[in-house]
């Protein structure tokens, strides 16, 4: 495998969630190991691409909803590799005074993001950190430079909390992010959920993913709602991804369901 100079020290023979997701979205920031895993998943779950696209569509709608609610600053945790519909493109497209901090643990995602935002670095920054360490994320010099914690902040955790097992106390670190932001702030979560039917194909896909990338933790609707403790859920609450304010004419409302639960909330 060709190792690009900027990826020195990264084990590219091991697939990463960021790059597998990028491949599912049709992006170009992935390597042979990522493509092989994604293709193995697609062999048993052809809907994996539809899930990735639906999740990305939700992210855009959620950011727009928070912009409408007056939020101008965003911390995107588990931001992934820049692709179509990036948070800073949406936010800066809506208002030139927007601020965005991307956070990811994956060095490839962070390297690409830094390159992509270089020309708007006065308003957009990238932090390599683990979202389970809120003190490190919130105290990072890039976060402190760009985010004013006296003004509302959108905290985004989109398609990332299913990589965090219960043993890592997601409610504990979510509380730290909630307590760090003022009223009027927002929380966006999208999360893998149990499919309506746990078929052999789905079990096989999950097994494939767990054996090669980060293990997945599925959560029920009640468990995803519990992640919003201390926030007020906006309409329509925690719902399957295609049902969260489906764009008119998209056909999402009547499309076959995808096993992902999402919600957007504000801090009173
Ligand atoms: C499926 S991608 C989602 C990307 C983007 N949020 C979206 O929904 O379009 C999940 C991302 O979360 C990142 N990630 C996983 N665990 C993380 C952690 N503990 N801290 C920070 N990032 C994490 C992965 O590296 C990957 O880039």
TrEMBL record:
InterPro entries named among the record's database cross-references: SAM-dependent_MTases_sf, SAM_dep_MeTrfase_SAV2177_type
GO biological process: methylation
The EC number(s) this enzyme carries: 2.1.1.-
CDD domains noted in UniProt: AdoMet_MTases
Keywords: Methyltransferase, Transferase
The keyword Methyltransferase belongs to this UniProt entry's keyword annotation: yes
Coiled coil: none
Superkingdom, natural source: Bacteria
GO molecular function: methyltransferase activity
Gene3D superfamilies, A to Z: Vaccinia Virus protein VP39 (3.40.50.150)
The keyword Transmembrane helix is annotated on this UniProt entry: no
Name of the protein in question: SAM-dependent methyltransferase
Organism: Phytohabitans maris
